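Example 3.
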Amino acid sequence: GAGVSQSPSNKVTEKGKDVELRCDPISGHTALYWYRQRLGQGLEFLIYFQGNSAPDKSGLPSDRFSAERTGESVSTLTIQRTQQEDSAVYLCASSLAGEAFFGQGTRLTVV
Amino acid sequence: AQSVAQPEDQVNVAEGNPLTVKCTYSVSGNPYLFWYVQYPNRGLQFLLKYITGDNLVKGSYGFEAEFNKSQTSFHLKKPSALVSDSALYFCAVRDIHYNTDKLIFGTGTRLQVFP
């Protein structure tokens, strides 16, 4: 597709359940990012992938959070044992030369 | 560490008036600076960037930003605001190290343009 695609667009889950969020980056973009945006707040960096290099996981808030990327394509962000404070919009972005293009995000609500 | 600061949570301006949304940065080395806009219930959209060259950078929707090295600022400007410019604006800096190349965002400034 022409842009970064994220699915699902909305996800409501019960506290304690695991969730998996998907990101399809722009074809050919070697870099992929995940950010979290809580309601009314700024963007919080979570993780960065660049090609086959080891990812920068420095922004992951706890060991309940993990992410994978297959080569230079799809990425999944997994949150285990979700908590209410995980409720936020999770944004994915891809980049080729520093300028990042964002998806529409997945709005996660933990009830 | 690289960082940006947006000192204003909200900026209010009347339609037709010039607008400025402030951003200051702190970097080691040459800065790579960006502005993004987030309209309600939509993702972030790229507006403009400064890498090198002219200090005045022109971007989408009539916006421009001025890079000022001595003041470490990268303020976003528009000569004549539109109601449709009302949105959340984020300044960002590129943080490049041996194992990462990520964007660090400011806390955002909400721009409200009144008719």
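The radius of gyration of chain B is 14 Å. Chain B has a mean pLDDT of 92.
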